[in-house]
UniProtKB/TrEMBL annotation:
Transmembrane domains' residue ranges: 24-44, 82-100, 107-125, 153-171, 178-200, 206-226, 270-289, 324-342, 349-370, 390-408, 415-433, 445-463
Coiled coil feature spans: none
Entry keyword Translocase: no
Gene3D superfamilies xrefs: Phosphatidic acid phosphatase type 2/haloperoxidase (1.20.144.10)
SUPFAM superfamilies found in the cross-reference section: Acid phosphatase/Vanadium-dependent haloperoxidase
Domain Phosphatidic acid phosphatase type 2/haloperoxidase per the UniProt entry, residue ranges: 107-220, 348-460
InterPro entries xref list: PAP2/HPO, PAP2/HPO_sf
Superkingdom of origin organism: Bacteria
Key words, A-Z: Membrane, Transmembrane, Transmembrane helix
Entry-linked CDD domains: PAP2_like_2
Protein name: Phosphatidic acid phosphatase type 2/haloperoxidase domain-containing protein
Signal peptide: none
């Protein structure tokens, strides 16, 4: 007996009939979208005058509105960056890693295949059509390559659309319209930003959206057929997501106990700890600024004698490991992976509070102390903040220390000790590089260590990041038990 017949015997004809009806309606919708894209492609390819006039009128009108406002340009560029290739590849990579950790390989494969298809379609069609980008009176942005279709519009429709389909089962029913509406708003704003920045025509963006809808519809249908062939019932509608039974695994922390009991009390404790840490930093910073020991500048001048072009490059790279972008990137990668592995919000809260507290303590204490930079050549030029304490070093200590604290309590394998080693080596390398480059005194490094030690001690006492700590295996077992129950 075939698998299809066995499926009918188990579930009856109704699910199969519903699946067929939805398939026909979906096919009609995909054909309609595909015809819309094909029509735009032909009209652009053969230079249909009414469409060209509309495209140029919209591009020129938006350019006149945007060109006079630097703030508007920056906002549009930021919105546009959420549809950029680097951001979207990073986003999909993190989600795929989370799905693989949660043992949802089929959904991960769907994201990989669908995303790869969009990356192939975009440059291929641009080369085929060969449309040049808009030429406006006051250019505010530039983009390489051809114009049709918009890669940002196509990519954002595919990436955010497929993520919505994959993650929808984890969203509560009452919030699904809000979730889908937010996704649609993001895609719409990215498309609008490309037109307003003068790097795409209206028809480029519309074509990108239509092609994106057609592509994710095709791959989603193929995914549903794949599920049916492996014995899953096809009766669930598309609004339930691609894999409704994965809801429990897709929830960020399904088995989480109370993250912070008595949150108002804990918030007050954190605030008091922040104030006391700031007071300690201000007292030490005021002292070293007024005292200004000669050996503080002397140590930096001694390091300066070792400068070579190769060491300058090495110190620049290591210094970058402690700047805002690197710290933020590592935090944004670690937090979702921590949620995927241990299914607990407490470690993520510990990371977020540590980094937010470090940043605010650094900015306020640096502004209050106002210590000048060392009296040596500064390879990084003029900096917007004062010298005490070092923000690069404090951020590096806080980040790698909290990662080490979290990982060592939840991993049993010997390789966990790599993270405490990194918690020592990374700040040490950043500290030496910052002093070598003439950006900080040794006492600024001491201030950074004082900031990190005091602030992390406050958070350790209040948050208790390793309370209820479990390994990834224990978290997965507990999750399966909850699903069965």
């Amino acid at each position: 007996m075939s698998s299809d017949n066995r499926l009918v015997e188990r579930t009856g004809w109704a699910p199969v009939r519903h699946f067929a009806e939805r398939s026909v309606l979906g096919l009609i919708a995909v054909i309609a979208v595909g015809l819309g894209f094909a029509a735009l492609l032909l009209l652009v390819r053969f230079h249909w005058t009414p469409l060209q006039d509309l495209d140029h009128a919209v591009a020129d009108g938006l350019n006149r509105q945007v060109a006079g406002s630097g703030t508007a340009v920056k906002v549009l560029q930021q919105i546009s960056s959420f549809g950029g290739r680097v951001f979207m590849i990073s986003l999909v990579t993190i989600v795929v890693a989370v799905l693989l950790i949660r043992r949802r390989q089929r959904l991960a494969l769907y994201l990989i295949v669908t995303g790869a298809g969009a990356m192939i379609l975009d440059p291929s069609l641009k080369t085929l059509v060969g449309r040049v980008r808009p030429v406006v009176e006051s250019p505010v942005a530039h983009a390489p390559g051809n114009s049709f279709p918009s890669g940002h519009a196509l990519g954002s429709m595919v990436v955010y659309g497929m993520l919505a389909l994959a993650l929808l089962p984890a969203v509560r029913r009452k919030w699904r319209p809000v979730f889908l509406g937010l996704i649609a708003l993001i895609v719409a704003l990215i498309g609008f930003s490309r037109i307003a920045l003068g790097v795409h025509f209206l028809s480029d963006v519309l074509a990108g959206w239509l092609l994106g809808i057609a592509w994710i519809s095709t791959t989603a249908y193929a995914f549903r057929v794949w599920r049916r062939e492996t014995g899953h019932t096809p009766s669930r509608p598309a609004v339930e997501g691609l894999e409704p039974e994965a809801a429990r695994d897709l929830e960020l922390a399904p088995a989480e106990k109370a993250v912070l009991p008595h949150p108002w009390v804990k918030g007050a404790e954190i605030l008091v700890g922040w104030v006391l840490t700031f007071g300690l930093l201000y007292g030490v910073g005021f002292t070293v600024t007024r005292w200004n020991p000669s050996w503080d500048d002397g140590f930096c001048r001694w390091l300066q004698t070792f400068r070579t072009p190769d060491l300058d490059k090495l110190s620049w790279l290591w210094s970058k490991a402690g700047d805002t972008h690197a710290i933020l990137a590592i935090s944004l990668v670690f937090c979702p992976l921590a949620l995927a592995l241990w299914r607990q919000w407490r470690p993520v809260l510990f990371v977020v509070l540590a980094m937010m507290g470090e940043l605010t303590l650094f900015l306020t204490s640096a502004a209050a102390v106002g210590r000048p930079r060392p009296g040596v050549e500064q390879l990084d030029g003029q900096m917007p903040t004062s010298s005490f304490p070092s923000g690069h070093i404090a951020a590096t200590i806080c980040l790698w220390s909290v990662i080490a604290i979290i990982v060592t309590a939840r991993v049993r394998q010997p390789w966990r000790w790599v993270f405490p080693v990194l918690a020592v080596l990374m700040p040490l390398g950043v500290a030496v590089s910052r002093m070598y480059r003439g950006m900080h005194h040794p006492t600024d490094v001491f201030g950074a260590c004082l900031l990190a030690a005091a602030w992390l001690s406050v958070l350790w006492w209040v948050v208790r990041p390793n309370a209820h700590a479990v390994t990834a295996h224990e978290a997965a077992v507990e999750n399966r038990q909850l699903v069965v129950a």
